[in-house]
Design goal:
It is a single chain. This protein is of the alpha+beta class. Helix content is 16%, strand content 43%. The chain has two domains: 132 residues, Diaminopimelate Epimerase, Chain A, domain 1 (Roll); 133 residues, Diaminopimelate Epimerase, Chain A, domain 1 (Roll), CATH 3.10.310.10. The longest helix is centred in the first third of the chain and has 13 residues.
Length: 281
């Protein structure tokens, strides 16, 4: 099985072109290839498939084999693959995900290879029922108290195609993301678990984010998480609508427009290609 290793701001996945090959057990394959000691090493597996309503379809599987709705950094890399490998050679693409079809604008370098992608991430879902989160399905969960492990956190929860819990902290570099991220991810308030973002406000136009991803642990970046942070920070009055989000793997340019739509712009990088033994597919 041929694959390509790609990353968006350090959020790395193994990508498989399923236009010409198939994967029978993607959950198992995701667990195997994601191992950083015994596999390729990644945050998960992304399949690039034909679509009946877009230029391509993506399916994403976390490192633990669970399937997610979508991935902001991943969809940028899917768009790069689709363009660079000739599936659809246009600077505006549509990619189908498990949470809907996204529109993307591609920016190429001097060699006509995609280096940056702007994604229309759509509108955030603020109601508990759409996150999902327990409680009144029509109420929001912005700035609410959540007790975990004997500690109370003030959190803002929302969905941007997948669920996120945003926690503002004073010193994100020294915050124990591994201890609190895992406990928040698995809090009983979240029936489908949740991604957790720990965020430090730098200025009205800048934030620093660390991410604990559902099913993957801490990752160097999270595009949907950055989208959730952009909305939560603005609604809390901490930032403007346009910000730069500094993540451990790089920066993302974010916008929460007056129309209520989130836009994310960031890099997409192909690292290497290889072949996975057929007997392990």
């Amino acid at each position: 099985m041929k694959f390509v290793k790609m990353h968006g701001a350090g959020n790395d996945y193994v990508y498989v072109d399923c236009f010409n090959q198939c994967v029978d057990d993607p959950a198992r394959l995701a667990r195997e290839v994601s191992s950083r000691n015994f596999g390729v090493g990644s945050d998960g597996l992304i399949l690039i498939l034909p679509s009946g309503c877009a230029d391509a379809r993506m399916r994403i599987f976390n490192a633990d084999g669970s399937e997610a709705e979508m991935c902001g950094n991943g969809v940028r890399c899917v768009a790069k693959y689709v363009y660079d490998h000739g599936i659809a050679h246009r600077d505006h693409l549509h990619i189908e995900t498990n949470s809907g079809v996204l529109a993307l604008q591609l920016f190429t370098d001097a060699h006509d290879l995609v280096e940056r992608v702007r994604v229309d991430m759509g509108e955030p879902r603020l109601q508990r029922g759409k996150i999902p989160m327990l409680g009144d399905a029509d109420s929001n969960a912005l700035g609410v108290e959540l007790e975990v492990g004997g500690r109370n956190f003030k959190v803002s929860c929302l969905s941007v195609g997948n669920p996120h819990c945003v926690v503002f902290v004073d010193d994100v570099d020294n915050f124990d993301v591994h201890q609190w991220g895992e406990q928040l991810e698995n809090h009983p308030q979240f029936p489908q678990r949740i991604n957790v973002e720990f965020v430090q406000i730098v200025s009205r136009n800048e934030v620093c984010q660390r991410t604990w991803e559902r099913g993957a642990g801490e990752t160097l970046a999270c595009g949907t998480g950055s989208s959730a942070v952009t909305v939560a920070s603005f609604l809390a009055g901490y930032t403007e609508r346009r910000i730069v989000n500094h993540l451990r793997g790089g920066d993302l340019e974010m916008e929460y427009s007056e129309a209520g739509v989130i836009y994310m712009t960031g890099p997409a990088t192909e690292v290497f290609s290889g072949q996975w033994p057929e007997k392990q597919v």
